[in-house]
Specification:
about 300 residues, TIM Barrel, eight-stranded parallel sheet, 12 helices, 8 strands, globular
Length: about 300
């Protein structure tokens, strides 16, 4: 049985950090890494949706991962999302992740073309073969990838000894139960949708990876602490507050990540904007920065 404890708990999805000219910023990537280390989270998920991976070149994704690993210096569990929309680049990123010292790699299925499950399995297994010393995590996000992880496909992937589980971002919490039952105790399921952080944990997720964790890590850590202590009433209460914040973050005309980066900027952490074609913060959404920041600070005070 594997030791999976390094993946238990709260793992923010790492945000892409850019200079003002839009280039990847090493300095700002280091600053965000330090901020997350100091927050007390268990680890980070680098190069996923929140990292704007599909809008970055492989060399940029390598630079970001190298910087995070170096700055974290062993203080965080680091999962590198390495999927590209072709196998060769994905394998290159996987090999790179192993060479720089990541703990695990992860990958969504190929997007755009609808592929048969045996082709998806080959894609994932080829990626895993390029990093034979690293754990492999399947990233199930059917609402964006247009391909859902099925139980038979997961069972096929479990034949690969490097596969340790699923980052499950599908909406039904029942999927966590399905994958946990298929993988057994030698497998970890990460809750993906931030709005079901607590319900996902109740269904058996041992860890959670989320795109809003980085802007309010204290709230997720407190919710996790309540859950671990069996205080489900307060865990539920803080989840309700988190969901109100997420609803506000998503209520703008533009991009949620532009709002998140605005909140971090307001609190002294400048990590730049978002990359085109994602829309930058527009004037109509600037009010959300103050509103969401107030909601976060109020909740932090409530559950101190």
């Amino acid at each position: 049985m594997r030791n999976l404890e390094k993946y238990f708990g709260v793992l923010p999805a790492f945000y892409a950090c850019y200079e003002d000219d839009g280039s990847v910023s090493e300095t700002r990537t280091r600053a965000l890494t330090r901020y997350l280390v100091e927050s007390g989270v268990k680890g980070v998920y680098v190069g996923g949706s929140s990292g704007e991976c599909i809008y970055q070149r492989p060399d940029e994704r390598k630079k970001i991962l190298e910087t995070v690993v170096d700055e974290a210096a062993g203080r965080l569990t680091i999962i590198a999302h390495v999927a590209c929309n072709n196998t060769q680049d994905s394998m290159e990123l996987a090999a790179h992740a192993q060479s720089v010292g990541a703990d695990a790699i992860a990958a969504i299925p190929p997007i755009y073309f609808k592929l048969p499950e045996y082709a998806i399995a080959k894609y994932w297994n080829d990626i895993s073969s390029a990093a034979p010393d690293l754990d492999f995590i399947i990233y199930n996000i059917p609402q964006l990838a247009n391909t859902a992880l099925t139980k038979p496909l997961f069972q096929e992937m479990l034949k690969n000894p490097n596969v340790i589980g699923v980052k499950n971002s599908s909406a039904p919490t029942q999927d966590i139960q399905v994958f946990k039952a298929a993988g057994g105790e030698d497998c970890i399921i990460f809750n993906g949708p931030d709005e079901q952080f607590i319900s996902g944990r109740i269904m058996g997720a041992k860890g959670a990876i989320g795109g809003t964790f980085g802007v309010m890590p204290k709230l997720y850590l407190k919710a996790d602490a309540y859950f671990q202590a069996g205080d489900y009433e307060r865990a539920r209460a803080i989840q309700y507050d988190i969901n109100e914040i997420i609803e506000s973050l998503c209520s703008g005309h533009g991009c949620m990540y532009a709002v998140i980066k605005g909140i971090l900027r307001k609190n002294g952490l400048e990590i730049g904007s978002v990359r085109a074609p994602m829309p930058e913060l527009i004037p109509e959404d600037e009010r959300l920065i103050d509103r969401c920041d107030r909601l976060i600070r109020h909740a932090e005070e409530t559950y101190r």
